[in-house]
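In response to the reviewer comment on reproducibility (Comment 2.3), we provide here a single inverse folding case reported in full, input and output, so that an independent group could reproduce the run without further information from us. The structure tokens appear first.
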């Protein structure tokens, strides 16, 4: 059985982007229409905005293809939770001005969703659950980074309020690992 180990690469990209200053490069690439967000806040917003479509798309696949009720229920939670969090984020962003599109992880997420579309059975379950564990770990790191280093008066409290939900999602994903090994 082939396991597609994609999320460690996503986590690595996230850590490298933060550590090497890609945050600043992405902020400079926004050009003259750059919003009044610092580079850390801008990076947080672009990556958080990208996570919602990924979680919704992969979650909808898992709602249909998940091999256990626990995996399908978790997927349903991911879809509804990310839609709610994205709504709260969008309400904040409407006051911030135009933002550059999220690009850093877009290709990686598209590849993951495409791979999941082609899988079925235990391989799907294992890749979906492993991906969720890795994604939630990276997402928790992203939110913690914003809490620690961000400067926006709206985004830091948003990250503080949302991080416990992410940690709960991670705990639930970890609990699914035995179900995914069936």
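Designed residues, in position order:
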């Amino acid at each position: 059985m082939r396991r597609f180990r994609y999320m460690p690469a996503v986590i690595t990209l996230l850590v490298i982007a933060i550590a090497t200053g890609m945050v600043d490069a992405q902020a400079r690439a926004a050009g003259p229409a750059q919003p009044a967000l610092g580079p850390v806040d801008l990076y947080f917003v672009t990556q958080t905005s990208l996570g919602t479509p990924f979680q919704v798309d992969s979650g909808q696949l898992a709602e249909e293809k998940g091999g256990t009720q626990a995996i399908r229920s978790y997927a349903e939670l991911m879809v509804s939770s990310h839609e709610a969090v994205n709504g709260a984020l969008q309400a904040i962003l409407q006051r911030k001005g135009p933002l550059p599109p999220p690009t850093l992880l877009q290709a990686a997420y598209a590849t993951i969703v495409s791979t999941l579309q082609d899988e079925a059975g235990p391989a799907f379950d294992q890749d979906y659950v492993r991906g969720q564990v890795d994604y939630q770990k990276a997402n928790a790191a992203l939110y913690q980074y914003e809490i620690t280093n961000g400067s926006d008066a709206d985004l830091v409290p948003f990250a503080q309020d949302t991080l416990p939900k992410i940690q709960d999602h991670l705990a639930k994903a970890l609990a699914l690992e035995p179900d995914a090994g069936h």
